Each structure stands twice: as C-alpha cells, then as structure tokens.
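cron nightly-structures :: item 1 of 1
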Amino acid sequence: MKLLFFAGALRADSCNKKFVREAMRLVDAKGGHQCEFLDLKDYPMPPYDGDIEATQGIPASVKQLGAKISGADALILSTPEYNGSIPGILKNVIDWLSRDKPVSLTGKPLLLLAASPGALGGVRSLWHTRQPLEVLEVFVYPGMLGLPAAYTAFDEQGRLKDEKMVARLQKLLDQFLGHVGG
C-alpha cells in the first residue's frame, strides 16, 4: 500500500511534522508499505479566493498536491491545534483541494493525529479537522490520537521518548492499516 504522511503545519520544527514522521518510521519499520512524507511547505498556495480561481484557475501547487494524494492508498495526517480548532493553513489546503476536480481527497481513508504543547494534545482540533474532510467524503478513521506536551515529547533524533505513547501510536497505526487492508 502507498501511504502518504503529512502535517497540517508549515514550520520546519513543527511538533506535528515530528509526530507524523514518527508514525511513518513505525510503519516503515514493519515493512510492506511504500511510505512518503509530504511537506505542505513544498506546495505554496494563496488563501482560497473564488476570484483567483475564476481568473487564474486552480494553482499548479494545488494540482500537484492533488496528484500526490490521488496516487496514495491512504493518508496519515497530524494537525496542530490553533485556538482550539483546525489551523488556517490546513483548512486552506482542504478548500483548494475541494475545487480541483475530481476531488483527490474523496474516498481516501485517513488517520488523524495531533500534537500540541498543551495538556489536551490537540484533541479539539481533531474534531474540527474531521468536519471538512468528512464533507468531502474522506473516510476518517474513528480512532484518533493526541500527543500532549509535544515540545518535550521528542528526543534529539525526533523520536518519541515515552514508550507508552510509542505503543499507543503503534497500536493505532496497526488498527488503521488493518482496517484499510494492509
């Protein structure tokens, strides 16, 4: 199975990039899947604006990102929590992708993760992120995982320090992959 891993964040040192890369490392260590990390920073796009779409069409970066998503069998996304909700950059990406036809996200199985420096681990953003994805008929897996205290959760190599959290993440990944057929 071809799996695409990405974070709803742009910052190079993002906890969510670290979390989803750790998820990719765990999946890759078991073998049997083609894993790819995708950085949204490589797909710059303006804020969604119907006037831009009408006069200039869908940006090339949106089409390129959509092609990557179309070629994947499943998606694993880690999202930050901005003010208790979905980050603007991720919502913008979803909005632009929804305009390119056929919609690359439609029908894709997706696992949601979140990492946050707060005590809740970004769980509020998980519920808000589900909504626009489910409207686009993304099959968002019911199990989700939030990582609290994310600023101190990783070692110098970007690996999770807490073995219990590693075990929780591995279990969720195994359940998700089993569900999608891999």
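cron nightly-structures :: done
Residues 163-180 form the longest helix (18 residues).
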